[in-house]
Amino acid sequence: MTDWFTGDMHFGHKNILKYCPRPWDDVDAMDEGLIERWNTMVQPDDAVYILGDVAFCGPEKATRLVQRLNGKLHLIVGNHDHRNLKSGMFRSCFLWIEQLKEIRVRDESAHRGWQAIVLCHYAMRVWNRSHYGVPQLHGHSHATLPPLGRSLDVGVDAWNWFPASYEEVKWRLRGCEVYAPEMSHQPKSEGGSSE
């Protein structure tokens, strides 16, 4: 089983072709191209973490498109997902739906064989355990935001319109500096109060 990360497909969103340099002439070709690229990589038993903005169309069409995607799908909510999340049919496409989620993926080279990852639609400057090197994956910026420390855009526009495997994410993060701003709290004195 492979763990995959992606986001910002914007299925059904005609104007995304104006905003992002995607290689399709119309929205139907884009939807079909994204599904084809996804399904050439992702197997039915793979875990896929979608970091928001699945579709920019009605819930019926969005559900039909998502149901064609391979993998066991998990959703981090993006700013364009709220309308579709009112639909039980759309919601049923995902094993869980969260705003922010800390997950662990299997990695034999990581401490105790697991790598923690923080998932959010939006890029963050600091997050839980960022000062220990835990990565934060996001979407939303459509490949326009440079990485800061170990915060990385996994949206389709940053990955040639494919999902990114954990191994690819790990490779891209290699050598990225751990961002650890100075802590602003003061140590407690012997009596328990701060000085």
What features would you describe in this structure?
With 195 residues, the chain is of the alpha/beta class. The protein has a single domain (3-173), classed as 4-Layer Sandwich (Purple Acid Phosphatase, chain A, domain 2), CATH 3.60.21. Helices cover 20% and strands 19% of the residues. The protein has helices at 16-19, 27-41, 59-66, 88-91, 166-173; strands at 3-6, 47-50, 72-76, 97-98, 100-106, 114-120, 136-138, 151-153, 164-165. The strands form two sheets. Strands 4-3-2-1-9 form a five-stranded mixed sheet. The protein starts with a strand and ends in a 22-residue tail after the last helix.
Total helical elements: 5
Main β-sheet, in a few words? 5 strands, mixed
What share of the residues lie within helices?
A: 10-25%
CATH class: Alpha Beta
